[in-house]
Amino acid sequence: MRKLNRRQVLKAGLGLLGATASTRFVNVYAQTRTYTLRFANYFPAPAAQSKLIDQFATDIQRLTGGRVRVETYHGGTLLGPAAIYDGVVQGVAHLGITNLAYNFGRFAETEILDLPLGFPNAWVATHVAHEFYERYRPKEWADTVMITLHASPVMEIFSAQKPVRRLEDLRGMTLRGVGYIGRFAEALGATARPIPMPEAYDNVSKRVIDGLMIPYETLVTFRLGEVIRYVTEIWQVGQVHTFYIVANQQAWNGLPQELRDVISNYVKSEFVEKLAAMWNQVDIDGYRYAVKDTKVDVIQLPQEEIARFTQAADRLIQDYTRNLAAKGVSESEVQARLRFIRDRIAYWLREQERRGIKSSTGPASVRIQL
């Protein structure tokens, strides 16, 4: 006697039930079926980023009545930072978080957000990044489903031994910097090395590199406070790492529409703000750690020196504009997108002031006093 598999048994059973009963059975089955999604993340498990992903998993399971369960894989245990995007495309993971710079050049239109455009802090930058994608939806993301863009705190200059007080001090220094952060380090006169963050601590402690272009939060998240001696603030030029969370197309489309709607509505109504608040808080924690709990010297540059950094930033933005034009996006369109980003930066900074949200960086109206 031929043995039937589960699908054949189900089909045979539905035939015996009749058309009306079969439809009712299928509907009930669809409404009770559960789905498991694997979420790849390279941040260490104790990090605030990982804890928020765990909260995402808990919230999604609750909001879907247990029908969608998210398994989280922290610390690169499923995929490393540079492999996450392709891993999601291929279905190794169903969800993944990483940043643009780990696949530099692949998401050229979205990399506009990685330029030194004057983001004052992560809270503002995350809201602007989310709005940028909603407005322009670049086709370069077509092989995944975008859950949301978000942004790290702004870059500062970390140094293990040598203080950076003038632009000339960067000459001869080797700094960890990937993507456009690395390009900006080079525009400032340093040499950039594209070292993955999980390897940064060892590279600094062994003096393979002199320092990093990185936010305050990494002093805690990646324990860099143990090996860094100086932090030079350059938040005025406002460069961030743009992060993304994407989903595998087949896994996403395999969810019933009502479940997709639940997840999408949650992301827009709650999770983007949670991301903005998390990034903002971890940088406050890193700044507090630098000022109060370590021997790190925080260096504030005079306005005339910041102006020199801004000139280098402007040249990098011009280079980006020309390079994207060569790929088919007109300079006038790039300029329009730059205006959109800067307009939204101004809007969200006003909104931050109105809400009384403090941050580790930015103008005095929003900067936390320790």
Automatic annotation (TrEMBL):
Domain of life from the UniProt record: Bacteria
InterPro entries in UniProt: DctP_fam (IPR018389), TRAP_DctP_sf (IPR038404)
Keyword Transferase: no
Keywords linked to the UniProt accession: Signal
Family annotation (Gene3D superfamilies): Bacterial extracellular solute-binding protein, family 7
Key word Signal present: yes
GO biological process entries: transmembrane transport
Record field: transmembrane: none
NCBIfam families according to UniProt: TRAP_S1
The protein's name: ABC transporter substrate-binding protein
Gene source species: Thermus brockianus
